Amino acid sequence: MPRIRSTKHSVQANAWQQAVEEYLLYRKADGLRESTLKAQRETLALFFRRYPEAWNDPQKAVLQFLSEDIKPSTYNYRLTYLKSFFDWCIEQGFFQENPVKRFKKRKTDHRIVQLDETIMTKLLQLPDKSTFAGLRDYALFLLTLDTGIRPREAFQLTKDDINLRSCEVYVRADVSKTKISRTLPISPMTVKAIRQLINARHPAWKDDVPIFTSADGTPLTKNSWGDRLEMYSKRLGVHIRPYDLRHTFALYFLRNGGHALALQRMMGVDRQVELTPVWH
């Protein structure tokens, strides 16, 4: 594959770092979400750190990177991010051929979990509500089971997004995965839990500190919330992932007579699609 840049290691490092920064700036200007930009940055940095010669010999590096012992979902993310990056590199004249063009996505095993009422009752009894973290987890469980809100959307909710009087949660456009705002009804039980959580906040925290935050005021993340669920899963004896609560909401909504289009709107799916058991 023809290459434009120098093969010297120091020059290569500078070349790929500059290319990645320019690429991410381009994608940001194109409207890509911050969470996706972060994921792409981490994937590209990992790729070039593990394979320093990748800028000089991308075909070999890509083959090694995608041959690692990883889950199909991780493989697919890597493939998608690398393809997008190298497509951009071709447009810039860095390369003439995309080194990942011959690779195809792998089939993933969509493990859909419906938590029955007994499991949900036990799960809601596990958080220690005498602590801020336990009260937060309890309120977040209820909110997700009430609305099917995505974890990342819930993590960014602030006090201004919660109307306890009207029992509603507002998902702002800049928070929504689809960039379309929506208003979600919540139950009195969830209202009570969120009110208790707000009252337990540190008095020095400003209103823009998220509702569902750590005890020191730092935002929850996908990984930190996953760790909390892993802890509860071990105590419960049932493996629960962050999206399982969202899926459970969807399944119960439909089985209780809810309309598919209403579910689509509540869950923030922005296009007409055939219903499948997986909602992201």
Order of helices and strands: HHHHHHHEEEHHHH
**What is the general shape?**
elongated
- Main sheet makeup: 3 strands, antiparallel
The assembly state of the depicted protein chains is: single chain
Domain Core-binding (CB): 14-90
GO molecular function: DNA binding
Domain Tyr recombinase: 110-280
Protein name: Integrase
Short description:
The protein has 280 residues and is mainly α.
Topology (SSEs and partners):
Layout: H1 9-29, H2 34-50, H3 58-66, H4 72-92, H5 117-125, H6 132-147, H7 151-155, E1 162-163, E2 168-171, E3 182-185, H8 188-199, H9 222-236, H10 242-255, H11 260-267
Antiparallel strand pairs: 1-2, 2-3
Domain Core-binding (CB): 14-90
Organism: Kyrpidia spormannii
InterPro entries: CB, DNA_brk_join_enz, Integrase-like_cat_sf, Integrase_catalytic, Integrase_recombinase_N, Tyrosine_recombinase_XerCD
